[in-house]
UniProtKB/TrEMBL annotation:
Signal peptide: 1-29
Protein's name in the database: Glycosyltransferase family 25 protein
Chain spans, region Disordered: 361-381
GO molecular function: transferase activity
Swiss-Prot/TrEMBL keywords: Glycosyltransferase, Signal, Transferase
Family: Belongs to the glycosyltransferase 25 family.
Residues annotated as transmembrane: none
């Protein structure tokens, strides 16, 4: 009995000491999870070796971010079903950010009424989307997350997403000028506000010289298969072939199929959207911030790593903001810009048949030889 009172404080002290191994804070107001130990052997085929520590945590259950989220309207549990299946089969899980109906957002909660669509349906669509993405940024700030990624509930990605992100992370470190002598807290580097991984348009900042070039990549769709809805990098003009992907500082963009915010980026996004004099859809507003705000650093990738899936069946099920005839039916599903679509390979993934993963465009020539990656432009300032 005499030992009891002494053991309890020791146990509490031990738990406290263990917790300190995981949680610390930095001088810039960010709370970092420690103890990851980014020691990782970078693929020797990749030309740029990440600073000392690595991109290992990209392979964890939140893709190297502190949390992952999925955006879903409560009335579309079918989309959440499909997302849960696809994400867990590729090794990550996401928490829910509830979608917002635009009619639930009163005008006084908007930064400006100027620029709103005249038609009520269109107004509700863009306002609901705007508010839902701001709720994501608000969650990052309120929970003090170092970083978080969010995907739309109909997003799709390559079955090798984690391997793609491991290479992208090296590119992000290079583009944000992580010195080989420094240890970044995030596998993606620490000097970024937004990682634009899934888009339908993205452009390179014109005065930025840094590029991270990923060559001989079997997950890059050929030019004839790429579908985008606004400006994208002119790969041919820059001398890149069909199997090349690039990482760069982004100047503008459209569509938010999947993107990540750092803590500082989430705070800037809340500030930037709250002070607009003219209302614009959230993706366009973010694109303007990437283009016009020198203190808002966006890292882009092209071709994109995440896109929007269009499933087989009634077209009326596709969009929560568009409308299609209930009689219109799609015989076969597809996803723009994704070679080994996770959504289209669900049955193979469920069966563990990794050797049977199918390409969306099986007639394309096979990519031979190892993947190569190299930095281009100034190395470190």
């Amino acid at each position: 009995m005499a030992r009891g009172p002494r053991l309890l404080p020791f146990g509490v002290l031990l738990l406290f000491m263990l917790s300190l191994l995981w949680y610390t804070k930095s001088g810039d107001g960010l709370s970092y999870i420690q103890g990851h130990g980014y020691s990782y052997n970078i693929n020797p085929a990749v030309g740029f070796k990440s600073p000392k520590d690595s991109v290992k945590d990209v392979h964890n259950s939140t893709l190297g971010f502190q949390k992952a989220f999925v955006l879903n309207l409560a009335e579309r549990p079918d989309k959440l079903d499909a997302f849960a299946l696809a994400s867990t089969l590729t090794g990550f899980t996401a928490e829910l950010i509830q979608g917002v109906r635009g009619e639930e957002v009163v005008n006084k909660a908007l930064p400006s009424l100027e620029g709103l669509p005249e038609k009520l349906d269109s107004r509700n669509n863009v306002v609901g989307c705007w508010r839902a993405h701001l709720n994501f940024a608000q969650t990052v700030v309120m929970e003090g997350l170092t970083s978080a990624i969010i995907l739309e509930d109909d997003a799709d990605w390559d079955t090798s997403l984690k391997d793609q992100l491991a290479i992208f992370a090296q590119g992000s470190q290079y583009v944000t000028a992580v010195s080989p002598n420094l240890k970044p807290h995030s596998p993606y580097g620490d000097d970024w506000d937004l990682l634009w991984l899934g888009h339908c348009s993205n452009q390179i900042k014109p005065d930025d010289e840094r590029r991270f070039i990923i060559e001989n990549d079997d997950t890059v769709p050929l030019t004839k298969h790429r579908v985008n809805f606004a400006g994208v990098p002119d790969m041919a003009a820059e001398g890149y072939d069909n199997n090349t992907r690039i990482v760069y500082e982004a100047n503008n963009g459209v569509c938010l199929y999947g993107y990540a915010l750092s803590f500082r980026g989430a705070r800037k996004l809340l500030r930037g959207q709250a002070q607009r004099k003219t209302f614009v859809p959230i993706d366009i507003g973010i694109g303007y911030m990437c283009r016009d705000d020198p203190n808002f650093k966006c890292i882009g990738v092209f071709p994109q790593l995440i896109d929007s899936h269009k499933g087989a069946g009634r077209l009326s099920r596709d969009s929560d903001i568009g409308s299609f005839s209930a009689q219109s039916v799609r015989q076969k599903g597809y996803t723009f810009n994704i070679v080994h679509s996770t959504r289209l390979n669900i049955d193979h993934l469920l069966a563990g048949e990794m050797d049977k993963i199918e390409r969306q465009w099986p007639g394309d020539p096979e990519v031979k030889g190892p993947l190569r990656a190299k930095p281009v432009g100034r190395i470190f300032d």
